[in-house]
Design a protein that fits this description.
- This protein is mainly β.
- It has a domain of 162 residues: 7 Propeller (Methylamine Dehydrogenase, Chain H).
- It is 0% helix and 46% strand.
- The strands form 9 sheets. The chain has a 4-stranded antiparallel β-sheet, with no helix packed on it. A 4-stranded antiparallel β-sheet has the order 8-9-10-11, with no helix packed on it. Strands 12-13-14-15 form a 4-stranded antiparallel β-sheet, with no helix packed on it.
- A hairpin with a 5-residue loop joins β14 and β15.
- 45% of the residues are buried.
Length: 393
């Protein structure tokens, strides 16, 4: 089925049950597709007047929340495709991200100037809008209770999401952090600076520590928040103790490829993927390391094109890894051995910009700059075709 107006896919979201995938893009429309059939279930949903920049399902799967360059946030019924709540119209800049609270009652939205929390049903502000004078970065805690922002005025705030009260702040002046993140255990806040320096802010003591930690290309907490990984342009990977800031280990791989991102499995201890890539057509590698920083066997080398952080994902059980690349191919790997078990899965005619496993691990979705989303059976073995659906946008 053709989308009413060609455009680039800018965001994707799987439904919680893994049966549907929602897509939005530059054509201002949202479509919902059946994973099994590849056919449209809903759409086009066409209230927005500019590109769709962010999509998220509610935790129950009842709603789809969309953010747009038209400065609005909309709530849709995931069953009927109809508008399910009053629009959020208070933003003055385009929406950069949307999130929803764990109980599905509040929407968190952000533009370059304002951070706001809204009631899902009424569209009313839960607390008064916060003027931040130019947001550099924002992050929401995993439990939905805290919001962290960094702004042009040189101050980092931690906000209580229910009340809008600032519960902590640090002032940096002209050295304002340009990125922020929250550890999965909601204890540490990560502050990144333009010179590559990283600080870890301990919320229990309300102090920023460990300014010696640095990572020029990539930085990420482990899923339990206990370990910090940093990557560099020469392929070096450092592992840090997030509590003390002490260097645990350092790995210098024998290949000069930039570390661009880290992707974690759900077991917390193994199968951490260090993704190294170049924008040229040279081979791209993935190398696994354990949480202690020790490298394990398994170098993934099949792709011949650039891989970005959006095109690697673990299966829910952590046993497989799916990847896409500028070479238009999708591979599924054994996470322990590094051997490709399915692939190359060919069909896209341009570079792949996103891949994702369904929550049940049975399917993989891939989107491409060719304007299509393809749904693959993640368990079909070669030589049989494993494509189960295609969406032409």
């Amino acid at each position: 089925m053709s989308h009413p107006g060609a455009g680039t896919i800018l965001c994707l979201a799987f439904s919680p049950d893994g049966m549907c995938v929602a897509s939005g893009g530059s054509d201002k429309a949202i479509w919902v597709w059946g994973v099994h059939s590849g056919q449209p279930v809903l759409g086009p949903l066409t209230v927005h007047t500019n590109s769709i920049t962010s999509l998220v399902y509610s935790h129950t799967g009842s709603y789809i929340i969309s953010g747009s360059r038209d400065c609005s946030v909309r709530v849709w019924s995931a069953n009927s495709g109809k508008i399910a709540a009053a629009p959020v119209l208070g933003h003055t800049g385009y929406i950069t991200f949307v999130a929803i609270s764990p109980d599905d009652t509040e929407i968190i939205s952000c533009d370059s100037v304002y951070l706001r929390v809204w009631n899902v049903q009424s569209g009313c502000l839960v607390f008064n809008q916060i003027v931040l004078r130019g947001i550099f970065s924002a992050a929401v805690s995993s439990n939905g209770k805290l919001i962290v922002t960094s702004s042009h005025i040189g101050r980092v705030y931690v906000w209580e999401a229910q009340t809008g009260q600032a519960v902590a702040s640090l002032y940096y002046g002209p050295t304002t952090p340009c990125s922020v993140g929250i550890s999965p255990n909601n204890i540490h806040i990560l502050l990144g600076f333009s010179d590559g320096t990283i600080q870890i802010w301990d919320l229990n003591s309300n102090k920023a520590r460990h300014s010696a930690v640095s990572g020029k290309e990539a930085i990420e907490f482990s899923m339990d928040g206990a370990t910090l990984f940093t990557g560099y342009g020469d392929g070096t990977v450092h592992t840090w103790n997030a509590k003390t800031g002490q260097l645990v280990s350092s790995i210098q791989p024998p290949f000069p490829l930039t570390v661009s991102t880290f992707v974690f499995s759900a077991d917390l201890l193994h199968n951490v993927v260090v993704q190294k890539s170049t924008p040229s057509s040279t081979p791209t590698m993935h190398r696994r390391i354990t949480q202690t920083g020790e490298p394990t066997h398994g170098t993934f080398r099949e792709h011949i094109g650039y891989i970005s952080s959006q095109v690697v994902d673990f299966s829910p059980d952590g046993t497989r890894i799916v990847s896409g690349s500028g070479d238009k191919a999708v591979y599924i790997w054994d996470a322990h051995s590094g051997v490709p078990v399915i692939g190359p899965l060919m069909g896209h005619t341009s570079w792949i910009n996103s891949v994702a496993y369904s929550p049940d691990g049975g399917y993989v979705a891939s989107s491409s700059n060719d304007g299509t989303i393809r749904i693959w059976d993640a368990n079909t073995q070669p030589p049989y075709s494993s494509e189960v659906g295609i969406v032409v946008l």
